[in-house]
Amino acid sequence: MVYNTSQGIVPGKINVHLVAHTHDDVGWLKTVDQYYVGSNNSIQGACVQNVLDSLIPALLADKNRRFIYVEQAFFQRWWRDQSEDMKKTVEMLVNSGQLEFINGGMCMHDEAATHYIDMIDQTTLGHRFIKEEFNVIPRIGWQIDPFGHSAVQAYLLGAEVGFDALYFARIDYQDRAKRRDEKKLEVIWQGSKSRGSSSQIFTGAFYAGNYEPPTGFYFEVNDDSPIVQDDINLFDYNVEERVNDFVAAALSQANVTRSNHIMWTMGTDFKYQYAETWFRNMDKLIHYVNRDGRVNAFYSTPSIYTDAKYALNESWPLKLDDYFPYADRINAYWTGYFTSRPAIKGYVRMMSGYYLAARQLELFRGRNKSGPTTDSLADALAIAQHHDAVTGTEKQHVANDYAKRLSIGYKECPLLNISYCPATEVDLSLGKKIAVIVYNSLGWKRTSVVRIPVINENVTVTDSTGKVILSQLLPIVNASIAMRKFHATAYMGESPSASPMYWLAFTAVVPPLGFSTYVISSSKSSASIKPISYTFDGSQNGAIQIGPGDLKLIYSGNDGKLAQYINSRSSVNISMEQSYSYYAGDDGSSDLINFQIPLTVFRGPLFDEVHQMINSWIYQITRVYKEKEHAEVEFIVGPIPIDDGVGKEIVTQIKTTIGNNKTFYTDSNGRDFLERVCNITDSASKHCFAYHNISNIRICVDLIMFSYFAKIRDYRADWDLEVNQPIAGNYYPINLGIYIKDKNTEFSVLVDRSVGGSSIADGEVEIMLHRRLLNDDGRGVDEALNETVCVLDKCSGLTVQGKYYLRFDPLGEGSKWRRSFGQEIYSPFLLAFTEQDDTWTNFPVPTFSAMDPSYSLPDNVAIITLQELEDGTVLLRLAHLYEVGEDKDLSVMATVELKRVFPNKKINGIKETSLSANQEREEMEKKRLSWKVEGSNTKQDTDLRGGPVDPVKLVVELAPMEIRTFIINFNSNLVKYRLYVGTVPAGSMGKYMMFISVVEGRNIG
Ligand SMILES: [Zn+2]
Known about the structure:
The protein is α+β, with helices and mostly antiparallel strands. Helices cover 22% and strands 30% of the residues.
């Protein structure tokens, strides 16, 4: 039997685009490698190698068959294994359009828990591979599984990579119902108010809320949909029936879709392991459905579908903002994962900042093809952006696999956060010295306090000029010592030998794209100032004032609670309160955690610390620096107790007197801030939260919250929200920060990793720090989110240590801190250590900057990529950090002088590319489809972009929120810094550490 599968679009008919696809999670229930090779099948019968192996002959069997492939992490694993003949065959299938790469990143990244720099990096990695191997540029975004969709995805990873459309499945069920009614599932989404119409992209949300075929059209070997049985000599002939089913499903979808084109997503998770069964049935359906003639069916791809929609020349509704939070049905908000696995989230963010810095160093040294490169870290980080990786929605063993991959990329004191760093735990009394090299990956000079654990108390710190500088010692408190011992033992399999006594803190001043060296040595008496400590046990009256500089925090003497924030420079004086509470995993009720007294204060010249043992499993250190106007809060939460049989989600709430009128702002993937509105009434929420521990009010929490609040209409920009989860339904992802404001003051909280947060009551900011749950959510993982750490057979719940930062500013002044300091949080100082004996006096080059010493990037610009590519060219990305109207001074066109960024290199050629660096920008703009928006005849706003770069002047202009990507060719006779990378044994553990020093700059040529 020969089936006619050659049909294309038929005008005037309902055209059913059959899009054959597989959704291959880059880790979820199994690890990425297990999914690829098909091992561990008792968990899930899934083998991506089978998918790709069986796909090729199935496509070759009929030139009308088409397939899309998405996840490059899997494709690359497969590609490496193929013969030259097979590679030629695949190239032929790609060139003919039978096999199309869609999305094209290493993974289908998450959109809530990811930072935009990571999203760009992992997309670039995949896109450049596709370009190099196939000379192909993916046209379509395909984010079919992530749990809600971000504005940054639409405009940066959509429009700015040159995509013509973006498709996804998961939007809130109430939103989807309304969009179906109004035929508004397909819209023009404008994700950035600063970028205006240039940020628009055509987007389609799938009508059924998933990425699967219509019911009854699954054709994997073991699926139970009826196959098309068209052999009249056999029993169960069912062609009419199947055609009728097909037509009915097509009509019901066409009823909620604009135009007569509909898309069927023919596939789902790990399907096509025996591709022929799918294609055999689709061949028959196409043949018989078209013979029937009521609708028109054919093999298609999202590109063909998009072109068909575009060809209609229609106008589409406009969508602003984003698609968060996501509920797939009543009481099912997917907002807990904004915080799930906070340790992995913190680790991903830390490695992300390190990867940015490591590529800079790799460039300065010269990419070493034979030696270690940043490539394995690039891969590990890319995979970690997957929507079941950094999200925390994977099984525990898979989470461990992501962490293991990341750990391979970083060796220098990975446990420094818990005061474990053998390289600095050296007895200096015997004349040894420790050199600390502090690298700054930002484009501007930076001053921050550095802390390292030391054994001796009589130490001095000298700077790059040999001058003794002010330093401060802090005792390592008991809570930290216990944590250090337990986790260092868990990490190494044996307990650490040395025990540092102190944190040594000093202020490092480091030039842009450069480093400074500090030397720590012993002295007769300590040059470092030991703190004066005070303990307040609650019997004191009056206030305790903290802070050696302009910023003072005032604590109440009798209950030890934070009460006031005073900044004498900006004249902000505001009352505040901080608390911890938890939501119970079983019923969502909330319980306040009482602060325990005493609190201990350590005062020093650089900063003051307030230590609070909140309860037996929450420890908090608040720091106020002399030179900074924000407070830094370090929290240690865990092990979360579960002996009462109740899982818990731990939140901190900061209450202020700001009248934010239900409105707050959260970032989109660390980039644009979006306005959020919370509509829980003040009195109601206070009622339930402040007095919940009185037993009769518990009824309020359990019953009234759900019945009473259910009557309140909450707010979404696009539809009238029926509120059924007043907390979860008001949670949003936070990657940079959250802020609230009234007519006088702004209050901002910045975070060091992805978290969930909200402003549930006026004046209040809440962020969720940790969660430990005892029940699976029934969405496939089949494990409770109950993370533990084990030493031998002794396991306890995971303890999470992290930081958040808070600051008040007069209205209109907060963004300077959010943007500049936010960039510093993303790119912390990178520390390297080496140990020397006393014959050694100084570094050959104790301080260094790759940039012109008199130059610095403007305050509103960051270098988000600086990387030598395999062919020796250099990838440079510059990002304007401010939105239109965000700051009166900095929301303006910025300029960067490349000659001064690279003073020792001659730029021979520079070309601007798309965001993922796989095509020239100009080409991309020419090709991109320009869609019409309903109700506007012309592009309504000016497309504000920096002008072309003059190859002689080499000045780059950046408009607010603009990111520009360049490939630069430096003169082959360029000056390369010779970075000596040596290894010296460090510490008693015999581990090795990396020691990087620039000793000279010279011509290599
Ligand atoms: Zn998935």
